[in-house]
Amino acid sequence: MSEMSEMERQLLSGNSAIALAALHAGVRLGTGYPGTPSTEILEAFAQLGGHAQWAPNEKVALEVGIGAAFTGARALVTMKHVGLNVAADPLFSVAHTGVTGALVVVSADDPGMASSQNEQDNRRYAVAAAVPMLEPSDSQEAYDFTLAAIEISERWKIPVLLRVTTRVCHTQAPVRPRPPGSPPPPPHFEHDLAGRNLIPSNARPAHRRLRQKLAELAEWSETTPLNHVLPGDPKLGIITSGVSFMHAREAVPGASFLKLGFTHPLPLKKIAAFAAGVERCLVLEENDPYLADAVRAAGVVVESKPEPFRFGELNVDRVRRILAGNLSPEPALPPGRPPELCDGCSHHVVFQALRDLDCIVAGDIGCYALGVLPPYKAMDSCVCMGSSIGIGLGLRHVLPPAEARRVVSVIGDSTFVHSGLTGLAEMIYNPPPTGHVVVILDNSTTAMTGHQEHPGTGRTLEHAPTGKVVYEDVARAMGIPDVRVCPLGKDSAVFQELLQEVLASERLVLIVARRPCVLVAKNIRAYDQCARAAEGVTP
Amino acid sequence: MRAGRGGGDAMNPVINIVIAGLGGQGVIKASDILSVAAFQSGQDVKKSEIHGMSQRGGSVTSDVRYGPQVLSPMVPPGEADFLVVLDPDQVAVNRGRLRAGGVLIAPDLVDAASLANRKSHNVALLGALSTHLALSEAAWRAALHACLPEKLRAVNEQAFAAGRRAAATPQTTP
Lengths: 539, 174
Known about the structure:
heterodimer, A: alpha/beta, Rossmann fold, 3 domains, 7-stranded mixed sheet, 5-stranded mixed sheet, 23 helices, disordered N terminus, B: alpha/beta, 5 helices, 34% helix, globular
C-alpha cells in the first residue's frame, strides 16, 4: 500500500526530488553545508528518514562523503556553487582515486545571484576536476538524474557532479517516482593502498585511469537517452541544457532541440550531427558559454547568446530576444524592497557601535552582511566565507597605525566554524603591530540560509543534542590572549564600551557577542527543553 | 478568459498567476496552497520563487503556472493572467507583470482587520482569486488542509470564504 502511494505523483521542489531519489537509491549518508539554493536537500532527506548531517564546511562534507563512498556505500554531498570552491581540493583528488560505492556531489549554482556573492558557473569544475556531470531541468529530472548519477558513479567508480540551478532547486513541479532499484550491498572495507594513496607513484597511473574513464564516458554520452533530440522544424535547432531548455521550448515550441542532460563529457558527435541537420543552430545556456565554447572547439559552427545575456538568469522573454538578435534595453525588474535586519536582531547593537566608533570593518557572509546597507553602512568588505579575519589582518599590517587601530573583523558563528579557525591561527602566528579585534556575532544558528544548526550550536541537523564547539574555549586554547564574552542586550552602550576598550588595548582580542537570532530563540528554547527532558528520563 | 495567453495556446492553455508581497506576509504559503489546489486537480504545475535574502523583510514574488503542460517555471514579463498582491506598496511595482486585460486582486479587496486572524489575509485573497479559476472547491479545501496545521485550518477556511464573498461583491471604482 505505502509502496503504491509512493509511486503516485508528488508536487516537489527540485531539492526535495533529489532527496527522495537519494532515499529511494539507499543513500547511506547525506552531508553538506547550508547554502542557498541547496539547503533544503539535506533537510528533506532527513525528514524522509535518511541519514543527513551538516558538516562545518563543504570541504569536510566532501571528505566525509569520500570516506563513505570508499566502503561501497552511496553518499550524497550538497553545497551551493561557492561551496565547491571550498571543496575543490578533495574533489580534484577523489576524481583520481575514484570511489568504491557512489559519490554524488550536488553543486547548486545561482545565476542572477538571488542570494550569492558571485555568479560562477560550476560546469567549469566538471572539466577542471575531470568528473562526469548531469544537469536536470525540472523536478522530475532532478529525481531521475540523481538516480542516474548514482548509477554512473558506481559503474565507472567515479564521483559525479549533479549541477542544478536556483530555478531547478526551488521550483515545485510534479514528480513521479520510479519503482525502487536494487539496494547497494552493505558497506565493508577493502584495502586499496595503490588506488587511494595519491603519492606521485600512485597518482600518475591514477590520472591515466581517470582519463580512460572519461574516454569511455564520452562514448557513453553519445548514446545515453540523457542526451536526446526532440525533432522539429529543421530551420532552427537549439542545443541546450538545464532550465534553459524549458524557457527555449516555451519560446519556440516548434524548433528542433538537442536537449543535453549529461553535459560532461559532451556528446560531440551527436552535437555535430544535430548542427549539420538544421539551417540555423543556436547554443542556449545561462551564464558562461560552457557548451558554446566546447562545441566550437570541436569545429562545429553554432550561434550563441550575445554577451549581455551572460549576466543573470534566462527566461522566456530573454530567449526570444536572443533568437531575434534584439539587444535593446531589457525591461527593468520591479524595484523590490531591499532586505533589512529584522526588528530586534542582535546585529543592530553591534553595527550601531561599529558605525559610531567609525571602525573599518572587514565583514563576512551572513545576515550581518546587511550591515552594509542603511542605516548603518558599517561594513567595508564581504568577500567569501571566513575572509573577514584574513582581510582584517591584511589591513592592519599595512595601514598607518592611526587607521590600523580602527580595523575590526566581524564574522558570524556558523561562518566562524566554517572558515574562521584558520584565520585565528594566522592572527596568533602573524600578529599586526597594533593587535587586532575579531567579533564573532553568535546568534546560535546559521540564520541567513534559514536557521540550520552547526557545530557551535551543539545540535544536529535534526536539532538533537550533540557535541558543541565553544568559541571562547577554542580561542583561548589556540592562544588568543584576550577573549571576552559579551551578551548583547537591546542597548548598544555595553558593547560599544567594550569595543572601545579592546581597540585601545592593541592586543589580539576575540569578542563573542552573543544573543540568539530573534526568529529562532523560541525554537532553541524548545530544543533545549526537549534535550533536558530526554536526559531526565534516560538513566 | 480562462485560456491564459501567456505560456499557453488553444491546445495548451496555461494559467499564469503572480503573488507578490513582503517577507512574512504569506506570499509563499499562498502560492503553496494555490499550486497544491492545481496539482490536486490533475494539472501540470510549476511554482517558482526566489528564497534567501527575501526572508529579511524584502519584497517576495511567487509565480504559479498550471495547465496541461508547463515549461518555463517563471511567468514571462507582462503575461500574468492574475496578479495577487498582499501589500499596498507592492501593487504599483508589480502591475507590469499583468497582461492586458489581466486581473488584479489588490490587498484592499479584503480588509485584514475584518478577519478573525489578520495573518490569514493571504488566504482571503486566494479566496477572491478562486472565483476566477476553474479549480474545484474540493481541490481548494484539500490544498488548505495539506498546507496548514490543523489549528489554523478553521480560521483560514473562514478567510477563504470571506475572500470569495468579497470578490462576488461589485467593487466601486473611484
